[in-house]
Amino acid sequence: MMMRKLLATTLMLGFATPAMAEIKVGFIGSLSSDTGLSTLRGAEIAIDELNAAGGVMGQQITLVTADTQEDVTEGVKAYEYLAETAEVDFIISGSIDDVSLGWLPRMQEYQIPTLDTWTSYIGIIDMIVEDPDTMAPYFMNIASDEALATLYINFGADVLKAKMGWDSVVVLAEDTAFGEAITGLVTEALAPVAGIEVAEIITYDVGTVDFAPIFAKAEASGADFIYQVSSVNSQVISSQYVKLQVPMAMTGVNVAALGVDYWDDTGGAGGGISTLSPLPSVGFKLDPVSQAFVDTYQEKYDSRPTIPHFNGFNAYHGLKQAMAAAEEAGGFGDAKAWSAKMVKQDLKLELDGKLWLRYGFWEAGEVEPVTGRTYPQNALFDLSAPYDDAQPSMVVVQWKEDGTPGVVYPFEYATTEFELPSWMK
User: Fold this and answer.
1) Helix (H, G, I), strand (E, B), or coil: what is residue 149?
2) Taking the model in full, what pTM does it have?
3) CATH homologous superfamily for 22-143+288-347?
4) Which of 3, 48, 182, 217 lies most in the core, judged by the most C-beta atoms within 10 Å?
5) Which CATH number describes the domain made up of 146-277+394-424?
6) pLDDT tens, 201-235?
7) What distances in angstroms separate CA 293 from CA 1, 152, 307, 366, 406, one per listed residue?
8) pLDDT tens figures, 122-149
């Protein structure tokens, strides 16, 4: 009798149905910022939809999170945790530029397919050009900051110079890798291309809370307008600009102004600010697919960000593209095989029969005609109208004093016109 029980137990153990294998996705980014949460939630919705449709390669997808706290050291620890402890197959990032630069050497070491949905630092694309082998698993599905600066220079020529008649600018830039990169790109081209002289560059610490002396210095420069570059605590410089009624228009790159929660964050003191924004932006018309994503997002989440930043859209579509590439490559195990399939992913979204948004990638050796350079594994973008092949790299958004945002440039995507704050009219 005992022998029969042992035999039955052995058979049960030997022929037990194995647990279904899973694909592990790691999220790396801040779990307490609109930036990080936009990417995380976009990924969560994509995973929900893929799992509901049967998963990928017969496997369900699970998500593991690692908080960077927007800190470089914590970011490195977070990547190591995902790679060594969680042993994820794929990583999706909502990291800011400095944090991504911190963990990139780990990505090169571990060779885990990784998609950056927020970071736009052109230096990372340069790394792909210089070292395509170790950078093969890395993709950036936001237009790099060189493309951002190129579009802004066109805005400078077409609007700030031609329409407003401004000839000089003072740059206020935060002391970060992002601030340094944008400042360099803009200042090198504004004068020769847009005919706008850079009168002065003022760099400030990200912990600055009193901008009155900085605005006074900007005004003393004699420049016609301010170009600000701010990705950290951008609400502070915005609200103080309005409350002090600085007698100079302020435009540039203001990360806080990219989200619909910006108006409440500034206490309604955000009117007149304009900023470059990747697509989709606040004030931007949405195609049916993008609108459906927003509807699902708002049904699922009741806390900020009330609408995801652009990187939430990047995460939603990019994760699905990463999974499609894995199916074609036979998994994530061979990073180069996956990379070869990922670079071919191409999603075209239309609005009223016109190409509106495109989620694709530049391939190695493809030359962008305006800049004359390559952008391997960077998001596809178009730098000149009529934007038949892809959407522009960015749009310029302005917040009005009634609390509504609208696109002011390129003109083909505009929903409102660029104007001065009321205290300057």
Assistant:
1) helix
2) 0.88
3) Response regulator (3.40.50.2300)
4) 182
5) 3.40.50.2300
6) 999 998 999 999 999 999 999 999 999 988 888 89
7) 61, 28, 10, 31, 21
8) 999 999 999 999 999 999 999 998 888 7
